[in-house]
Here is the input.
Amino acid sequence: MDTDASGRIHYTALFRYFETAEIEFFRETGILHHHPGIAFPRVHVECDYRSAILFDDLIVLEVSVGKIGRAPVQLNFRVLKDEKEAARGNVVIASMDRQTQRAAAVPANVREKLEPYLSSIQVIE
Amino acid sequence: MDTDASGRIHYTALFRYFETAEIEFFRETGILHHHPGIAFPRVHVECDYRSAILFDDLIVLEVSVGKIGRAPVQLNFRVLKDEKEAARGNVVIASMDRQTQRAAAVPANVREKLEPYLSSIQVIE
Amino acid sequence: MDTDASGRIHYTALFRYFETAEIEFFRETGILHHHPGIAFPRVHVECDYRSAILFDDLIVLEVSVGKIGRAPVQLNFRVLKDEKEAARGNVVIASMDRQTQRAAAVPANVREKLEPYLSSIQVIE
Amino acid sequence: MDTDASGRIHYTALFRYFETAEIEFFRETGILHHHPGIAFPRVHVECDYRSAILFDDLIVLEVSVGKIGRAPVQLNFRVLKDEKEAARGNVVIASMDRQTQRAAAVPANVREKLEPYLSSIQVIE
Here is the structure.
């Protein structure tokens, strides 16, 4: 169902792969579960497509932390096919106080657990 | 994005069309909005595909009420292309008390508003 | 993205899980790839939902072969959560001659490779 | 199915709305159908989210042409809710020779039909 009539994986399917990678990453770093009082809406998402991904292509997803701001966290994603980059993208996740609906500081334990994954090379900009 | 590599609309896309039709139907009958204390989980969904639907085909969705039981409501869907049935299906929606998580009676106002749409011909069985 | 406003996995997401399971099953049995001249459109899909699946629930998907007819093959799916059945469903896949667009016999190598997976208990009917 | 457990429309659903708007736009301008020998893969997609969109919110999608390059075309999208911008984004569509798989000039009739929709204000950059 991820393919389209051109036989390629449809570009929107990659955002599903990004989210799957993000969830596994958050599970592994121990920050998957809800943080009382804080919501994490997306404020920006983007993807650049370099080469076609076809049905049954084996791909590898790389996740790293691009930036940790006061309120937002940027996650970077790379999609590798045959060890070459087929696509790259990022999502910017805000921290928001559920009650006031305004920006909140990234919770300290989230910040601490993400810092080891900060990419030294800021791949997306 | 609804097509697949065969050029057809992927079979799972039809469930999205069914849900779109259902929401418009519930909006029109005035029962779209939340009924305090009652949830409406799906307990069954099915679809039969008779002919291929292709990109840019114009289709018509027909919704009718198949059955109104004590707790469940069955909605029937037909997908017409060039006035011929390309697919048909149904969803069975339970009424559930949110607190006890057990079957509840279909709310009286829902029942009353759906009854005019009961299909005299019980198309799916 | 698979959850909905009720916090449950939306019922349509299960068809995506079914397809993922199907692809892995076909890959393992060595029949994933295209069979010249034969297409495999779905003619029927259904799912019964027994209990809610929530975000981050760990589920197991079981695939078996329900029936092998002259032209159609039925795959059965069970979704297990904590070793209990949360949902079950099936898809019926036709074999179709691409040129004539009419029913064709299930290719012999497909039949042979699926037979070991015929469920002795015909779970869906 | 577009909502998530937070009750908001999931951010990835917007790309589906963008594509729906794009198809209607291309249909209206008369360039929806396949251009022999030329494919139109996406090379970039992005979206900025400014405010939450909830179930049953009525939204309006605006499409305009951001840029027409030699090979790529950028479409800009705005999602309005209560006449305020809830999200904005763009897709960059390349023109590619199907045979050589290399960049091709935007077909003359596509260029001509898109030019009237060039936004004088280059909204996304």
User: Anything to note?
Assistant: Confidence is low (pLDDT under 50) at residues 121-125 of chain C. The helical segments of chain C are 13-29, 108-114. Chain C touches chain D through nine residues (CB under 8 Å).
